[in-house]
Amino acid sequence: MDRVEKINGVDALVLDDEGPRYGAQLGAGDLVGAALSHGVELLVVPAGRLADDFFVLRTGVAGEILQKLVNYRLRLAVIGDVSDHVAASDALRDLIRESNRGRDAWFLPDRAALDARLA
Prior knowledge:
Blueprint: E1 3-7, E2 10-14, H1 28-38, E3 42-46, H2 52-55, H3 61-71, E4 75-79, H4 83-87, H5 90-101, E5 105-108, H6 111-118
Parallel strand pairs: 2-3, 3-4, 4-5
Antiparallel strand pairs: 1-2
């Protein structure tokens, strides 16, 4: 069950491992709506809740989602193993590396890494 948590002082909507996958069909507007309806500033999304088209950058899905979240001043933390997707795409590897340098979107291996990032 999705839940709202305060993680090191940051209000976050933590999505459950099970549920619909976000991508072209269920996209940026749905994530923004969920965040705004819960009054949070951070979305914590298990990597498995992102559709495969999110990880194929030429589809534009990741760019649309990331841009819409930035426009609404929301942050995203994708938690879990994305190594298979990264192995298939140098562009995705670059996107993740650049995202992890900033404050708007992070791709992290586990919840402990998120806790450390927000500490």
